[in-house]
Amino acid sequence: MSESAVPECREDPLADLPESVDPQVAGGFTLWFADRRWEWSPQVYRLHGYEPGAVEPSTELVLAHNHPDDRDLVAQLIERALTDREPFSGRHRIVDTDGCEHTVLVVANRILDADGEPVGTSGCYIDLTDTIDAAGQAAVSEVVPEIVEARAVIEQAKGILMRMYGISAEQAFKVLSWRSQETNTKLRAIAAQLIADLPQVPPPRPDVLTVFDHLLLTGHERVQPGKD
């Protein structure tokens, strides 16, 4: 990863999966938009059946390992990521070098450069193969939109923090994570409550940050029981 580029966020991609699903993170990846260059972690190499570094990951290699019925879908996801500079995320099947089929969920976010421009997408493969049956796979399919929605809420809350405190996206996420960990409240709930409380912030004046500080530090108290 280049020194001038920072991940847009590093939240736990598994935090919003159903409790009935017990996925395994199979490793991380990065796709750089400018030169369409892929980077795989050792685990992702092994997921595809290779020793780390044995091949150079590429879009062609990624598509070659997709299940034939899923290949067009993944090609569209990758092209959308490269064209619209959106995260490469979705659920599909891959076939490793031994011919074994794996059902994977790819959860990712954008990488921003120092100017806030998207330069890549980075995330992880979640191997669902050994942990869910057909019914479980249906449950995961249903929850994927919820994951996307949850990430959008977190991004909104990060934007608020960035604006109010004049901090970076990464720093804003660290603030949200801190409140989540300190209060044992889900990150999504903290973010949603912060957004809900925003109308309480008065028009800009010297004491606005004092009010905002109070909302940030007490938001967990207003999260409804059982709200994720």
Distance between the termini: 33 Å
Contiguous runs where pLDDT drops below 50 for at least 5 residues = 1-23
CATH H-tier superfamily of the largest domain: PAS domain
Globally, the shape reads elongated
CATH class of the largest domain: Alpha Beta
- Looking at the overall shape, the CATH architecture of the largest domain is 2-Layer Sandwich
What is the strand tally?
A: 6
Provide the number of structural domains. Answer: 2
Order of helices and strands: EEEHHHEEEHHHH
Characterization of this structure:
With 228 residues, this protein is α+β, with helices and mostly antiparallel strands. It folds into 2 domains: 109 residues, PAS domain (Beta-Lactamase), CATH 3.30.450; 96 residues, no CATH class. Strands 1, 2, 3, 4, 5 and 6 form a 6-stranded antiparallel β-sheet that branches. β5 and β6 form a beta hairpin. α4 packs across α6. It is elongated and about 60 Å long. It starts with a strand and ends in a 10-residue tail after the last helix.
